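Supplementary Note 3. Input sequence used for the single-chain structure prediction.
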Amino acid sequence: MEVQLFVETAERGSISRAADALGLSTSAAGRHLASLEHRLGARLIERNTRRMFLTEVGEEFLQRCRGIRAEMAEAEALASSTNRSPVGTLKVTASVSFCARIIAPVLPEFTARFPGLHLSLTAANRYVDLIDSGVDIAVRTREHESESGLVIRRLGATRRVLAASPDYLERHGVPRTLDDLADHAFLIYTLANHPHELTFSKDGQTRTVKMRGVLESNEGQVICNAGLSGLGIIVQPIYIIHDDIVAGRLVPIVDDWDLAPLTINLAYPNRKYVPSKVRVFIDFMTAHFEAMQYERRWTQRWP
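The predicted structure, written as discrete structure tokens, is reproduced below.
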């Protein structure tokens, strides 16, 4: 209990939050930490009226504790590897758009198939540290996946396209060439690698175009809704706006040029034994992508 409490305190940045997570009173948690420090003969945590921080010894001890925790997780995974019905909490993270458009619709089928699993889904447009946050598996959509210490399983790919509502194009005209884009207003997704410029390729040529923004946001749903309302041109992966294009609510433009595609990956900590709860999620999502033929649909060029 003492070591678990120390790790929870370090990761949550608060003794009270760690105590709540473990079902302890704050006073009891304080006594456990004091007992641990007394037994080790070393100060692990320093506290003042404003904040709490780890000592140098505490930092080193935390890293060792995390290593032990990872070993225990592998041991548990090995012991339950033959379990045909995994149990426990599966922590998954993905972007807000991916959670809403891809994961949420299949949750009834997933939970019916694995009733012993409790799914904790974190929707966030940033890449969290899987080890520090305790996340089991992440869905990541990016041009390149270079993070070490993780296993990467490819799910598929998606093109990115420029699109606007019919109302916007009626009022401002349809851009036919890349040069025409200079006369148009863009809705800019600020978490893109280069949010204020676009690099296109075609037949071995490469062109970079600056965007004039009328709206900026770190949330793709805001960008898409503003685009549907006719505010400007959006730049989004097809998986997010596919249905709007098919329904005619958005119209692709200058689609004879390509932006760098995005790869959709599953990322999880590199362990010798993959927990059964992680394995069934990987298999489920892989089968779903294949059945829906997402990559074929999301990499097509629009006429």
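The longest helix spans residues 56-79. The chain is about 40% helix and 25% strand.
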